[in-house]
Structure formats: structure tokens, C-alpha cells
């Protein structure tokens, strides 16, 4: 018996398992597509011909196809509707969420708290919290017989260059 659920599953699995019969013939390119139109659009990326020009003020960037031009306009020239209202700040944002996060700079509010047990660190922006979180995780040297642990990546990098690279060059000099 065929149920609606089985039919849906069969239809979906067919969609995801489609063969990519339309392969790019450009040397060194391994891209392949399920539709001819997608291959044709891709082939324009190998061309030096750039007929699609951005007409925004002082831009003039040219692109291989209209899709790439549209993406450029959306990313670069899309109107920034969200303006910071803090006196003296002229920052504008494309997303309200970005304006909200920016506003913490003016209020000194630090809403992003470290979740590590016993740590009370707070930050104004998520990227600073993400960077801070690595301190708790740390970085361990994976060289055989070492296993030293560092709070910061720069500490591990210095350790590797000072203790392990030097050791290797010493071994080479002893063998010769």
C-alpha cells in the first residue's frame, strides 16, 4: 500500500539523488549540474567577457552574468535602512540585528555572557565572546610526547616554533 508519506519520501529521495549529467568541459574544472541551464550559467564564469555592468554611482564593476551582478547589488549597494540614533554616530546597517548589537557600544551594555562554569566575562558583541571562549577550550600541542596546553593560539604557535621546529633542525645537524 502506498501512503502519502511514502510517496513524499520517494519523491524527495529522487530529488536529492539526481545525476549531475551536465559537466563543465573547461580544463581543470570539475563542476557538474543537474540542469543544462545551471551549466550554461556556470560556463560564463570561465569567460573574460564581462557584459553585465553595475550602474550604481561610482561603481562600474563588471560581471560575467546577470545573477552575479544582482548578488553584487544586493550585498554592496542595498539600502542601509537601519541608522544608529546615537549622537555623533553615522553608522548604518542592512539588518536590524546588526544595529542592535552595535548599540551596545554606546550603552556599555554587555549582554553576551560566557557560559563556561565560573567565568563571569561579558561582551558587547558575539565575536568577542566567541574569541574569548577559546581560552577555556585552549590549544594542546599534538606533537608526540608533548601535550603542552596553551590558553591562546599564539602561545601554541610560539611553542611549536621554539620547541619543536628547533628540535628538528638540531636533529638534522647532529646527523650530518
From TrEMBL:
Signal sequence coordinates: none
GO molecular function, a single term: RNA binding
Entries under PROSITE patterns matching the protein: ZINC_FINGER_C2H2_1, ZINC_FINGER_C2H2_2
Entry GO terms, CC: nucleus
Keywords, alphabetical: Metal-binding, Nucleus, Repeat, RNA-binding, Transcription, Transcription regulation, Zinc, Zinc-finger
Domain C2H2-type stretches: 22-51, 52-77, 82-111, 112-138, 139-164
InterPro entries: TFIIIA_Zfn-C2H2, Zinc_finger_trans_reg, Znf_C2H2_sf, Znf_C2H2_type
Name of the protein in its database record: Transcription factor IIIA-like
Amino acid at each position: 500500500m502506498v501512503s502519502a508519506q511514502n510517496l513524499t519520501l520517494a519523491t524527495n529521495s529522487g530529488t536529492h539523488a539526481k545525476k549531475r549529467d551536465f559537466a563543465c568541459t573547461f580544463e581543470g574544472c570539475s563542476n557538474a549540474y543537474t540542469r543544462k541551464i545551471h551549466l550554461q550559467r556556470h560556463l560564463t564564469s570561465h569567460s573574460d567577457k564581462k557584459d553585465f555592468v553595475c550602474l550604481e554611482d561610482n561603481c562600474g564593476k563588471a560581471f560575467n552574468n546577470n545573477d552575479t551582478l544582482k548578488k553584487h547589488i544586493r550585498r554592496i549597494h542595498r539600502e542601509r535602512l537601519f541608522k544608529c540614533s546615537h549622537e555623533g554616530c553615522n553608522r548604518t546597517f542592512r539588518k536590524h540585528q546588526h544595529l542592535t548589537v552595535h548599540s551596545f557600544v554606546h550603552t556599555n551594555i554587555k549582554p553576551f555572557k560566557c557560559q563556561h562554569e565560573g567565568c563571569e566575562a561579558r561582551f558587547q558583541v558575539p565575536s568577542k565572546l566567541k574569541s574569548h571562549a577559546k581560552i577555556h577550550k585552549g590549544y594542546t600541542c599534538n606533537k608526540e610526547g608533548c601535550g603542552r596546553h596553551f590558553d591562546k593560539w599564539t602561545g601554541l604557535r610560539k611553542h611549536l616554533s621554539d620547541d619543536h621546529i628547533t628540535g628538528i633542525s638540531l636533529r638534522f645537524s647532529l646527523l650530518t
